[in-house]
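User: quick one, sequence for these tokens?
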């Protein structure tokens, strides 16, 4: 048989684009487990699934997120020559959807949506150019109580995936949701005589970095600018020191409760329609969170929170993991009452939040919390030498019809270093153990003639052989956890073995795939 391999000189280097990532089975198993928990929370709140294309007309996206977002769009032309771009978030497509299908999506409407989004960002910890968001949005109501439900859902998501603020909890498991109101920030800027929208948005983006870069760097960036860690110069807003001294003290307002923060802010703001509206909404949000039993530890009022996107008009919120501050927000969102107006002459209010899947999982990995099964396979059917494949296929099919994920071992047809192209039973068992498959079924000629199967609990055998140094004792222990039963008892016995184990599929730590 002729060699079909590609000459070395013609090989294309297998590599991933900078800022993008490949997700291998272990990462995907963890990801899917987390997403199922998040989806269950969203559905409890009445959100329904939708999907939109990854590509949108450029006119749909441009100008919605602000100047920085415009620069971050992946742009090109469609085959028809129309300017198009890859979506930078899932919120703008939702606003377009609400306007496009008024008859099919009667208001009020709640949706959840999971999908990839794309930004020409600088890669960093948990920050990629393609990343997955899992959004919820509610359209049709101006009630701040709806924003309260969004925050409550965010808190429930954090608890569903294993984080908690309970007394005595591991500090690694803490989470915090910060909430503010863009009207409140507008009131502060008006008090400081900052009337230019362009300057105001620049101030918002800088203040939003406070937790990430610290007070001194924010002060520099509000003024003449600063040099970042890479040596690049960051353009400043150009505010004078007296104006900066008006803005920053307000942003640093604190209190022991959401209501106390609101009252402290009331004392610092001048009396204006903008400040009155903002404070009223803060009070309404506090009332809603109390009614929803969202604890003071779970959600705090933080005047430094601005959220960088231009389309926010009211309450804004962001979830962080205090033990992993370098990853920034893992959830965030807010109210955007004017965004749908871009596509419709109807004034349709809306609010929502986004769960940053990739950043959240990267933070979990960093904290050492990302343990997940190494495989979804529960049973592997091994092949003894000389055994025909047909009865083994029938056996695997019987297990699958009983809803037991089953793999039939096939020796690889690839030859190379470390590859067992003719796998012995020992090699097959080694493969099953390294893959984390908990149960093996062995059928030889004797078992086939007597209509019996040998079922081996691989995890139990591994545990019983641990620490044994004597060869004879090790071989004897190798038979532990193995039973031979009639074929009619196979499914029941396998299910009993899986149920008897508290951890039927061994957990492994997920390795991080970091952006370049």
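Assistant:
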């Amino acid at each position: 048989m002729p060699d079909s391999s590609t000459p070395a000189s013609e090989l294309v280097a297998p590599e991933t684009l900078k800022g993008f990532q490949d997700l291998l089975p272990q990462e995907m198993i963890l990801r899917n487990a987390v997403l199922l928990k998040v989806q269950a929370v969203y559905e409890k709140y009445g959100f329904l699934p939708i999907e939109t294309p990854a590509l949108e007309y450029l006119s749909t996206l441009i100008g919605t997120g602000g100047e920085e977002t415009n620069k971050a769009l992946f742009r090109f032309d469609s085959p028809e020559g129309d300017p198009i771009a890859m979506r930078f978030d899932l919120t703008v497509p939702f606003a377009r959807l609400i306007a496009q299908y008024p008859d099919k999506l009667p208001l009020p409407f709640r949706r959840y949506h999971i999908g990839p989004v794309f930004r020409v960002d600088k890669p960093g910890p948990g920050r990629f150019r393609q990343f997955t968001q899992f959004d919820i949005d509610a359209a049709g109501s101006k009630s701040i109580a709806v924003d309260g439900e969004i925050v409550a859902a965010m808190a429930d998501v954090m608890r569903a995936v294993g984080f908690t603020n309970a007394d005595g909890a591991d500090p690694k498991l803490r989470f915090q949701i910060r909430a503010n109101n863009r009207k409140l920030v507008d009131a502060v800027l008006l008090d400081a005589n900052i009337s230019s929208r362009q300057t105001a948005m620049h101030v918002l983006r800088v203040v939003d970095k406070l937790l990430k870069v610290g007070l001194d760097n924010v002060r520099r960036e509000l003024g003449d600018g600063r040099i970042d860690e890479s040596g690049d110069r960051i353009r400043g807003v150009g505010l004078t020191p007296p104006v900066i001294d008006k803005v920053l003290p307000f942003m640093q307002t604190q209190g022991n409760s959401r209501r106390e923060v609101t009252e402290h802010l009331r004392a610092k703001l001048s009396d204006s329609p903008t400040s009155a509206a903002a404070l009223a909404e803060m009070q309404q949000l506090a009332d809603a969170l109390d009614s929803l039993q969202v604890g003071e530890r779970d959600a705090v009022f933080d005047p430094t929170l601005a959220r960088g996107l231009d389309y926010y008009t009211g309450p804004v919120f962001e979830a962080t993991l205090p033990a992993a501050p370098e990853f920034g927000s893992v959830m965030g969102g807010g109210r955007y009452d004017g965004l749908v107006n871009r596509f419709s002459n109807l004034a349709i209010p809306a609010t929502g939040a986004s769960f940053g899947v990739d950043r959240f999982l990267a933070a979990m990995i960093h904290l050492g919390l990302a343990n997940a099964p190494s495989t979804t396979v529960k049973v592997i059917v091994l092949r003894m030498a000389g055994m025909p494949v047909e009865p083994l296929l029938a056996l695997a099919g019987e297990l699958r019809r009983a809803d037991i994920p089953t793999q039939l071992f096939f020796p690889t047809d690839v030859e190379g270093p470390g590859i067992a192209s003719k796998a012995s039973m020992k090699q097959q068992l080694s493969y099953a153990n390294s893959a984390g498959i908990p149960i093996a079924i062995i059928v030889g000629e004797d078992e086939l003639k007597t209509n019996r199967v040998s079922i081996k609990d691989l995890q139990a055998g591994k545990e019983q052989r641990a620490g044994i140094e004597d060869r004879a004792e090790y071989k004897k222990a190798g038979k532990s956890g193995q039973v031979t039963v009639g074929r009619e008892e196979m499914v029941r016995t396998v299910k009993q073995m899986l149920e008897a184990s508290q951890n039927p599929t061994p957990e492994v730590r997920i390795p991080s795939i970091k952006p370049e």
